[in-house]
Amino acid sequence: MATTEALSVIPASVLRNLSDKLYEKRKNAALELEGIVKQLAVAGDHDKVTSVIHLLTQEYTYSPQANHRKGGLIGLAAVTVGLTSEAAQHLEQIVPPVLNSFSDQIAGSYYACEALYNIAKVVRGDFIVFFNQIFDALCKLSADSDANVQSAAHLLDRLVKDHFRVFDSFDMATTEALSVIPASVLRNLSDKLYEKRKNAALELEGIVKQLAVAGDHDKVTSVIHLLTQEYTYSPQANHRKGGLIGLAAVTVGLTSEAAQHLEQIVPPVLNSFSDQDSRVRYYACEALYNIAKVVRGDFIVFFNQIFDALCKLSADSDANVQSAAHLLDRLVKDIVTESDQFSIEEFIPLLRERMNVLNPYVRQFLVGWITVLDSVPDIDMLGFLPDFLDGLFNMLSDNSHEIRQQADSALSEFLQEIKNSPSVDYGRMAEILVQRAGSQDEFTRLTAVTWINEFVKLGGEQLVPYYADILGAILPCISDKEEKIRVVARETNEELRGIETDPAEGFDVGAILSIAQRQLSSEWEATRIEALHWMSALLNRHRSEVLVFLNDILDSLLKALSDPSDEVVLLVLEVHACIAEDPQHFRQLVVFLIHNFQLDHSLLEKRGALIIRQLCFLLDAERVYRELSTILEGESDLDFASIMVQALNLILLTSSELSDLRDLLKQSLVNADGKNLFLSLYASWCHSPMAIISLCLLAQAYRHASSVIHSLVEEDINVKFLVQLDKLIHLLETPTFAYLRLQLLEPGRYIWLLKALYGLLMLLPQQSAAFKVLRTRLKTVPSYSFKEERFRRTSGIPYSQFNYGGGGSQISEDGDLNENLHDMHNGINFALKLQQFQQIQKQHHLHSKSQTQSRFVSTSWTKEVQIAEESKRAASELNRPPSRSSGRGLGQLQL
């Protein structure tokens, strides 16, 4: 079939001229043949090239006709020239018939020399495998009787020598190897058929075995050198395949003596793992497998290179290569586990580098090795866990369920070992776990938090420097969407907070505070709450250290007062209260608080009551109100001062937390502490007429209340005043003022109370609900007949003469003539207080007038519309029926 195929591509005229007796015709036929082969080579049709060579060999060089043999030689040279760089893969067919022609006595060795000369010029060093035969032939031809043959042989000899001078791989070792390996073995070792290469390898194994028995290791070295240089590093794939199987055969032949040659054998095999040809990679696995079976533990010195190569092959694109690599991997694992020469210290850096690879096959390979090495008692993988822990955690988010499962299994085993180990490097691993606790992958977060939980329980003092980082990882997880993570995170947080630590032992209070402060801005309520618990805990344990960082955290704590969560606000206030235990910090807190209310009126409206009430509960209510009043007394923003006082007054009258403060104020006229409190509040309460009236009613200073009411002028009685009055009337019906309503049972004794209430009634619009409520209440007052003398004494004494606290028998401020005032403390100059009220109100009038004029200039055309709308809202408010509930949320004020 080969001959038929060749005849189909070579014209009959070429074949005929190739055997012509005239040299010129043979030469021209060879040139045509060269062109034909060149086309076949370009088309990659090497099967037809092989058929052409077969035809030239069998029908020409081995022909009994001399001209045919001459034509065959020039034809083989033409084929080589036509193939150019691809000629090397056909040398096994081309060279032998040419060498055979050196002994042709009839056709003459001249044409054989000429043919080999032209072949050598093309393939150059690739024909080194035939050196021994070429050398032997040239040796004989140098003494040929024909001068032309001698001349041709001389030219060929010079070319061969020139090639060897520039051919690095040719040396004495190669020559020596060629002397012990038959050419047929070398030829078959690079054959395209596996069976021929296998048989050649078996023959090579036998040769090496004889050399080993004879102790001739120099020749063994030469053989390995030849296989390495001329085969495994050859550009021809079949040569490389042959070189690999040859090196494995050499190892098998050496058996127990192979170890001394491993430095030569293993590197070229490892180099072949990265070959572009998948079959070469496959045979590299096969070769190393056979080598490893022979030398076992002796090849541990190459473990890192082998591991690296297997790591790459585990992700090979060829399934057969992967399968071969898997078999080799299993064998290497067996050898490592039984070897005492394995160096884990040298291996870990390579493992750490490879852990970053994302390929699933490589990851599976790596986890397999980690598990195997951890199972070896003499290998301390736990000590090197920090080097590859991050890589294992990275695998928990792999798309492959199998890889996630394997990584989790490995991590679980390591965690169990950590629990049973007396000494573990918690610190380095804690850094990794902190990063992984913030992973986007749910399973990774859960595993990281679980590890942190165990570390907190086991780590003790080792983890002190990492508490801040751990806390920074745990707090966000407390609000995780996954319940399992939340549960573990909360448990860890409690464990962490329960550990008693000291700054002297490395506990960084500032770092913990910084983490807690940062988490105050978390979008999750649970995290913000735990951050505040940490601040409270730190204040309780390390107060002095925390106060050093007060300026760093105060702004965040104040902003947290605007938090939408009531629980968060209450906790923030606890922290503030704890800070405010020191006098200087207490005033600073109140100043900051008023400043924030001034900047954000919505905070005062929505959170004002809650904040003030909680501060009064946590701190002394009297202390809080005194400080607030002192600050507001000097407030330059009169509008804000009025709003703030109205808010404080409403809280004072309604909050259960301030019941003791109200009781003390009720004793203002008979108790020094009550009087002092009344005086401390009075100045700032003057910013709001209704607030000062409420304060007087609470303090039972009814005559002064009546005087304040009578002192009101037109500017005071505006919509805002009427709204506040409406609120007060309804508050008079609450339990807070039950004592006042009971005093109405004795109108003769509390005449100034009646006068004050009637004064308020006169200020209310008659159609308003508040008017009806107060009128109804006043209608229930009993009608008593007063002694004219007493009434005259009560009503006839000018107000200016009522300066309480002086000597002698005086009547009480509210008009009770029967009260003995000899035991009263220093009195209150109400006339002076009335002047103070009037002065402050005058400032408000001037301020209001100034604002009105300013608005009139800028927006005069909208003023009437605004007044109309305001009047409409006021009328609606005043006509609103009384209600027990204002409908506002917890801690909100309606001012």
UniProtKB/TrEMBL annotation:
GO biological process terms, semicolon-separated: phosphatidylinositol biosynthetic process
Gene3D superfamilies assigned: Leucine-rich Repeat Variant (1.25.10.10)
Residue span(s) of domain Vacuolar protein 14 C-terminal Fig4-binding: 602-781
GO CC entries: endosome membrane; PAS complex
Annotated region described as Disordered, given as residue ranges: 870-895
Name of the protein: Protein vac14-like protein
Any Pfam family: Vac14_Fig4_bd
InterPro entries: ARM-like, ARM-type_fold, HEAT_type_2, Vac14, VAC14_Fig4p-bd
Origin superkingdom: Eukaryota
Residue ranges of HEAT repeats: 265-300
Family: Belongs to the VAC14 family.
